[in-house]
Amino acid sequence: MQRLSRARRALEERLGRRVLIWGAVLLALALVLCGIPLFDLLGYDFSFVLGLATAFAAADVGHGAVAAARRAGGPLSLGEVLARAVLGALGMLALPLAVSLLNALRVRNCSLLSGLVFFALLPVGTALYAATAGALAGVLVRRRGRALALALPALSIVWSLLRLYWDPAVFALDPFGGYFPGPIYDEALRPSLRLLWFRLANVLWAGSAVAVVAAISGGGRRQPDGPPRPGAFSAPAGGLAVVLVAASAVVFALRGPLGFHVRHADLATALPRHTETAHFVVLSDPASGQSPDELALFQRDLEFRYQQLTRILGTRPPERITVYQFPSAAAKKELVGAGNTLYAKPWTREVFIQVDRFPAGHLRHELAHVFAAGFGDPLFGVSFAIRFWGPLPVPRLASGLIEGVAEAADYGDPEGRATIHREARAMMAAGRAPPLRSVVGAGFTTQAGARAYTLAGSFCHFLLLQHGAERLRALYHSAGDFLGVYGVPLEVLEQRWRAFLERQPLDAVERARAQERFRRPAIFSKVCARELAARVTEARSRMYITPERAVSLLQSACTDDPGEPTFRLDLADALIAAGRTAEALALAGEIEADPTLASLWPLRARAASLGALLRFHAGKFPEAAAAVRRALEVATDEGEERTDLAKLRALADPEARQTLGRVLFGDSPIRGVDAVVTLFLVERFADAFPEDALGPYLVARQLAWRAPRQALPLLARACPLTGASPARIPLTPPFLRECRRLIADTAFRAGDLPTSRTATQRLATAAAAAANEAELLRTGDFLERITWEEGQR
């Protein structure tokens, strides 16, 4: 006890009590984080939150080192003061690190090395920078030094938040605040070179500040009454300061190209093609492969969605919307921090997407965010409001309404075979639906994305249907004041919504699809969510380059989370790429036969398809056909159904196997067929089987996007819009529907609007007869598009 007491007194003499107090605060924070999912293991999230607190703690401890030296009165050099400040700041992190490491005995940590690197780059990097800044503030400012030391991290973090507000990127790097990576839905996250280079830049900036202070304080020499203070100038230190400040200025000027701070000017350089329409400014990359005709089509798509949203939401933006169209998800991730996640900034009227085939998916959803700014709060244009609890203002953010209104506005063009209402009902039937109150408010982001978006979208569209756009706008503006807007509390509206959903039809296929789609929990409930997502992402990128590495990564993912079947399916793919087909076939068979996956039809279909692929290339055609039939039995997507039917046709005879079979199963289990060869093979199939309408359909499908006018006559042979098919073997219903969709889309792009309208009307008639609401909505949307296009001519 006496030794501990002496150590404490010595610490107080050198640094003051601040290091003990802040050390206790950081320890308490670490203990709290160890009880919160996602933050309870040593990784990015733990390190990020701890780093934010460390910024203020280290700055205060740095100033405390100067204050303690002044109280002691002994001579100290600038280097000694900085050393004491840095050592004190780093010492505070020892116990939080130990607590997180010990917590790994309770919570699985899948990558200790990654966690340690994050800890070094975030709280440790922040401690070094903030302690130095705090000490220099104490040296330069004698009376208000502590206030300045604490203001530095606050001002820096506020500046980063302002950059997130004004600038296009959704990630932020800050010397005090560390690294904010962007949307939570991009789960894969590991320490990046960008963060490492940024921390090295921080060292340069801190070194520059130290050199400047040393230069104006006589080289940082000892003073008789404590640390050095400004006064005498040191020429050697001044020369070093000039060099370091110049280097710092260069790095700061290059912060955009280095990826530290991406601004609008940087995006304008990366996306130099600038085009305008009546309501949009589009920035895109001319090297993306998008032709002028495709760009013009995209611009018309934007204008069509604009007029739709004006009608649906009853409002329009006051100025043009800027659309940044990146060439790929990877390019978007590198430049602005969001990969597969599309996003909008309503307050700046900007939308960030990547090149997509016409019509662009989810485009109307993102544009709806910008439209909603017209009835959102004045600062962010979202569903945010200040309410009062007595005299206290309480901010309220309704994240569920932000996304729910956008989903409701995009209701008319659903994907797949079910509407969002039927998906919501299927989720409830599967027991996967959280309480609505936890979805419509700020708790939206704590839910699994697929569940939250579906429920919020269904509920908001129900409100739009039942009560109109005006009340929905008022609800959005109030950030969820259901009683004030609708006269009844949320619970009553939820009961009515659930009763509405109970009237939605539901079949076995939709139930099975819901079981898989809504099975995955939120990131907060996943095992090592960020690390395992990063492993799977890396494995997929390496699968055909270094397949054994991909196998190793996926094996480790299966070991760490044995309850996730998609990891096992990815492992089977990697085993095929590595040439270990026997192991892959065995694993696919295990997954297909696993009784715990009986209700997860999409996974069973994928496993059966893998088995069919391997058996085809092994020459076991009857077994391959049997596997395809098993996949067809559990297909939940019409595209999968068509593919399985085509595979069965390919397996029917030797000529079909050599042509269509080669197209569908590839030249090997890991190598597909070149696009030019694919066209040659499907033409050979069509010539060999002229009585089969599948042939001209497949040839037309290859041409449809590249040469729509040349594709149309072939589509007319496969599924004529009037009269019976001339082929003795007509298309089966799934192919017939898709053939007519292709006619509608291809004729539209070819400028033949009458043919496009006729094909769409035929689809609508068939959908009405089959009570297929999703298809009715899609055809209605496309008919509206045709009418709009006719009006533009």
Short description:
The protein has 793 residues and is mainly alpha-helical. Helices cover 64% and strands 5% of the residues. The chain has a five-stranded mixed β-sheet, with helices on both faces. A two-stranded antiparallel ribbon has the order 1-2. A two-stranded antiparallel sheet has the order 8-9.
Basic shape: globular
Strand order of the largest sheet: 3-4-5-7-6
Return Rg in Å.
31 Å
Describe the biggest sheet? Answer: 5 strands, mixed
Q: In terms of per-residue confidence, which ranges show pLDDT below 50 for 5 or more consecutive residues? A: none
Strand content: 5-15%
Helix content: 55-70%
**Mean of pLDDT:** 90
Q: How large is the count of helical segments? A: 34
Question: What's the count of strands?
Answer: 9
Distance between the termini: 90 Å
Structure class: mainly alpha
How would you describe what is shown here?
This protein has 793 residues and is mostly helical. It contains 34 helices and nine strands. The strands form three sheets. The protein has a five-stranded mixed sheet, sandwiched between helices. A two-stranded antiparallel sheet has the order 1-2. The longest helix has 30 residues, at 449-478. The protein starts with a helix and ends with a helix. 46% of the residues are buried. The model has no long low-confidence stretch (mean pLDDT 90).
Question: Any chance you could write out the topology, listing elements then pairs?
Answer:
Layout: H1 2-15, H2 18-33, H3 44-72, H4 78-92, H5 94-103, H6 112-140, H7 145-166, E1 172-174, E2 178-180, H8 193-216, H9 235-253, H10 264-270, E3 273-276, E4 280-284, H11 292-313, E5 321-326, H12 329-336, E6 343-345, E7 350-354, H13 363-372, E8 384-389, E9 392-397, H14 399-409, H15 420-429, H16 437-440, H17 449-478, H18 482-486, H19 490-502, H20 508-517, H21 529-542, H22 547-560, H23 565-577, H24 581-593, H25 601-617, H26 621-633, H27 638-650, H28 654-665, H29 675-688, H30 694-704, H31 708-718, H32 733-750, H33 753-769, H34 773-792
Parallel strand pairs: 4-5, 5-7
Antiparallel strand pairs: 1-2, 3-4, 6-7, 8-9
Helix pairs in contact: 1-3, 2-3, 2-4, 2-5, 3-4, 3-6, 3-7, 4-6, 6-7, 6-8, 8-9, 11-13, 13-14, 14-17, 15-17, 15-20, 21-22, 22-23, 23-24, 23-25, 24-25, 25-26, 26-27, 27-28, 28-29, 29-30, 30-31, 30-32, 31-32, 32-33, 33-34
